[in-house]
Amino acid sequence: MNLSNFLNSQNYNPGLKEIILDIQAGSIQVYQQLNEAEQDIFGSSGQKNVQDEDVQKLDLLANDIFIRIFRKNMHIHSILSEENERILTCDNDGAYIIAMDPLDGSSNIDVNIPVGSIFSILKNTPEGFLQKGSQQQLACYVIYGTATMMVFALNKSVFGFTLNTKTKEYNLTHSNIRIPVNGNIFSINEGNFNSLETPVKQFLDYCKQLGSDKKRTHTGRFIGSLVADFHRNMLKGGIFIYPKTADKPHGQLRLIYECNPIAFIAKNANGESTNLNTSILDVKPVKIHERSPFVVGSKNMVARLLEFYH
Question: Which residue stretches of the chain have pLDDT < 70?
Answer without folding.
Answer: 37-55
